[in-house]
Amino acid sequence: MEQDVIDKLEADLDRSRVKVKKIQGRPDADYLETYDVINRANAIFGYGGWGTTIINIDMVPVDGKTVCIATVQLDVGRCLPRQDVGVVVSAGDSPQALETAAKGAVSDGIKRNFRHFGKQFGNDLYAKEKPTAKDVAAYKAQGHPKESEEKPRAKPCPLHPNEELLLHRNEATGAEWYSHKDGDVWCRGE
User: Fold this and answer.
1) Do residues 70 and 89 touch, judged by C-beta distance below 8 A?
2) What's the pLDDT at 114?
3) What's the whole-model pTM score?
4) Where are the domains of the chain?
5) SS3 149
6) Coil, helix or strand for 40?
7) How far apart are alpha carbons 30 and 170 in whole angstroms?
8) What is the CATH number of domain 3-125?
9) Where would a tag sit more exposed on the chain, N or C end, judged by fewer CB atoms within 10 A?
10) Beta strands 50-62 and 19-21: pairing type?
């Protein structure tokens, strides 16, 4: 891969590209929209420099709902192909709802594949651990805000039923992580 492409991939993600999805009962989820990922891929790899193949789409009934699972392959230049899955729960069983779920699952699979190429495609949005002091210092040196001093939200830990997790969010880097109250155990809560 050419150095100019690597430099573009390693550049920090412009946080204005990040959207937030509200999920009931869970912390908000940061994500990139599909059109944004495609535009960025074209800008970095060039038009015709990458492509996707839908390997498989399955509609699976789960608890009275239909879950669409799409396996998507991504090919970028001379890089090894990557495969990942996208998953969407259908809003119903009408043909339009199933079509929308299939398209959503393919879009999710495309985005999940591109994240293997790093920051520009939102890989850092998956970070679940506390950023290093070096990361925070570098971000603050650029004039960004300090880490939030608000008390973190708490929730039960699904892995440790008798423990409570505290949600921390570093406003400087946008990273979120969970820790048990004793602070000695780091847990993703998944």
Assistant:
1) no
2) 95
3) 0.65
4) 3-125, 127-180
5) coil
6) helix
7) 13
8) 3.30.390.80
9) C
10) unpaired
